[in-house]
């Protein structure tokens, strides 16, 4: 099992809310199913390992599985929501790794909101929360070398190149990944 170790004796990850200036990260739930199904498109997954969800029932299954994993403490999967309007913006996550020490950050933002700083703010908030609340050695952030906005996010968090690797995504695309190492303290 790949548990995310909390500094507190016990943490209910499903009760966690992380507030930024413009966004709040709240545990993904069934109310986000339609947005996730509609917005997690081929274009969004171009540089990601997963492929788009084929149906609403796949989206519901993804949410249910994510919440079970949060309950078990193996990953954190948050909806990114605008504080002012409540609009769903995307998903930001931290996945436990087998060594229990190097959780992996991930993020996607709906296409219509790209370039508005929400990706940066979300990952920064989650990384800061992780630094304050979890026990780990460093976070990882794998990015395709051509995914410039995402590389900028990793680098702005002090990410340094840990390794380079080639992987096939679930859509069958070859990903030329740079894995950034994001330290405990900047
Ligand atoms: C990667 C992603 C989450 C970035 O989110 P975003 O909200 O659009 O990005 P931001 O507005 O926060 O910008 C992040 C940085 O990239 C820069 N940037 C944004 N769009 C850019 C573009 N098209 N070209 C170059 N730089 C860009 C921003 O200026 C910012 O850098 P800065 O702080 O140095 O100015 C978003 O593009 C996305 O969802 N992509 C599809 C899914 C994906 O690839 N996820 C990441 C997998 S590793």
What does this molecule look like?
With 186 residues, this protein is of the alpha+beta class. It has one domain: Aminopeptidase (3-Layer(aba) Sandwich). It has 4 helices and 10 strands; from the N terminus they run βββααβββαββαββ. A 5-stranded antiparallel sheet has the order 2-3-4-5-6, with helices on both faces. It has a 3-stranded antiparallel sheet with strand order 8-10-9, covered by helices on one side. Strand 5 and strand 6 form a beta hairpin. The longest helix has 17 residues. The model has no long low-confidence stretch (mean pLDDT 94).
Structural class: alpha+beta
Helix content percent band:
25-40%
The biggest sheet amounts to: 5 strands, antiparallel
What gap, in angstroms, lies between the N and C termini?
A: 29 Å
Strand segment tally:
10
Q: Which ions and ligands are bound to the chains? A: coenzyme A
Rounded to an integer in angstroms, the radius of gyration calculated over CA atoms is: 15 Å
- Number of structural units classed as domains: 1
Number of helices: 4
Task: Give the topology string: H per helix, E per strand.
Answer: EEEHHEEEHEEHEE
Write out key terms for the chains shown.
186 residues, alpha+beta, Aminopeptidase, 5-stranded antiparallel beta sheet, 3-stranded antiparallel beta sheet, 4 helices, 26% helix, binds coenzyme A
């Amino acid at each position: 099992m790949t548990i995310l170790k909390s500094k507190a004796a016990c943490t209910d990850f499903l009760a966690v809310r992380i507030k930024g200036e413009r966004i709040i990260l709240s545990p993904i739930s069934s109310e986000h199913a339609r947005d996730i199904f509609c917005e997690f498109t081929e274009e969004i997954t171009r540089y990601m390992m997963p492929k788009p969800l084929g149906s609403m029932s796949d989206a519901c299954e993804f949410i249910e599985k994510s919440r079970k994993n949060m309950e078990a403490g193996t990953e954190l999967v948050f909806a990114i929501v605008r504080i002012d309007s409540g609009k769903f913006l995307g998903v930001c996550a931290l996945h436990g790794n087998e060594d229990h020490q190097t959780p992996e950050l991930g993020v996607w933002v709906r296409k219509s909101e790209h370039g508005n700083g929400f990706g940066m703010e979300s990952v920064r908030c989650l990384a800061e929360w992780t630094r304050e609340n979890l026990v780990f050695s460093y976070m990882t952030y794998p990015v395709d070398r051509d995914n410039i906005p995402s590389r900028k996010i990793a680098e702005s968090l002090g990410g340094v190149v840990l390794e380079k690797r080639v992987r096939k995504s679930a859509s069958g695309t070859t990903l030329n990944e740079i894995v950034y190492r994001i330290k405990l303290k900047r």
